[in-house]
Design brief:
By secondary structure, this protein is of the alpha+beta class. It has two domains: 64 residues, Orthogonal Bundle (Arc Repressor Mutant, subunit A); 157 residues, Chorismate lyase-like (Chorismate lyase). A hairpin with a 2-residue loop joins strand 5 and strand 6. Helix 1 packs across helix 3 and helix 2 packs across helix 3. It is elongated. The relative contact order is 0.12.
Length: 244
């Protein structure tokens, strides 16, 4: 981009700088929380005072687009993934709607003895072995969620499936199972050593746990899913209306 301002324009300098910064933070190199160039360098490049630059920066800080860190600099706020209650979509579908290309960084599927909680959900005996799918997923340069899915043994899902396909497409097209209802629980937690290593964060940092219970059209349990999200990459929105 052409990073300069028009000193002869009637538009105030801080407004011109604000517009430039908005373009700058949308550039690919600033998408993962990078720091802006130093204020002294930016103001010198644009031939403006640091007060003018700070006025523009403060506007974007107020809007939540930038973060000031004392003694460090000004950081671009990382883009967060938004999901809404009542909007029943698979993770792949959610990301496609948002225009985000998702990739699997890791993928493994194996038979696993279920916990008492999962056994109760599926209506089977504890320690019964079911198929367990684990995937580390995210944008091309940032893994931000670790998923663990366990499937009702009645479905007999195969480990040879191509799990790079959307999961609920596999269930519907290959097994005639339609994921119809999702009941979710959202909670905060601290990352243990395993999840921290996967999400590239420090042990003990906050994460968001999204637990999903999925049923078919006949209310039969299909999937028990737990997603561990980086806290700086996911926002869950709820819209409610009063009964008047």
């Amino acid at each position: 981009m052409e990073f300069k301002i028009d000193h002869q324009s009637s538009l105030p300098l801080h407004k011109q700088v604000e517009a430039l910064l908005r373009e700058l933070i949308e550039a690919p190199e600033y998408q993962n929380g990078q720091y802006l160039p130093k204020e002294v360098d930016l103001s010198a490049h644009l031939k403006i005072s640091r007060n003018t630059l700070r006025q523009a920066i403060n506007t974007l800080v107020t809007e939540g687009l930038l973060i000031r860190k004392k003694g460090v600099g000004t950081q671009v706020e990382k883009k967060k993934i938004f999901s809404a209650a009542g909007n029943w979509l698979s993770f792949s579908e959610e990301m496609r709607v948002l225009g985000i290309e998702i990739q699997n960084f890791e993928l493994q599927i194996y038979r696993h003895e279920v916990s008492a909680e999962v056994a109760a959900f599926f209506g089977i005996k504890p320690a019964t072995k079911v198929m367990r799918l684990e995937r580390l997923r995210g944008k091309k340069d940032l893994p931000f969620v670790y998923f663990i899915s366990e499937f009702n043994p009645a479905i007999a899902i195969s480990a040879s499936e191509n799990f790079n396909r959307p999961l609920y497409e596999i269930l519907e097209m290959d097994y005639a199972v339609v994921a119809y209802t999702s009941k979710e629980e959202i909670s905060a937690a601290s990352a243990d050593a395993f999840i921290a290593s996967k999400l590239e964060i420090k042990q003990g940092e906050p994460i968001l746990i999204r637990k999903r219970y999925v049923y078919d059209i006949n209310n039969n349990p299909v999937e028990y899913n737990v997603g561990c999200y980086r806290a700086d990459s996911f926002t869950y929105t709820i819209e409610s209306k009063r009964n008047l």
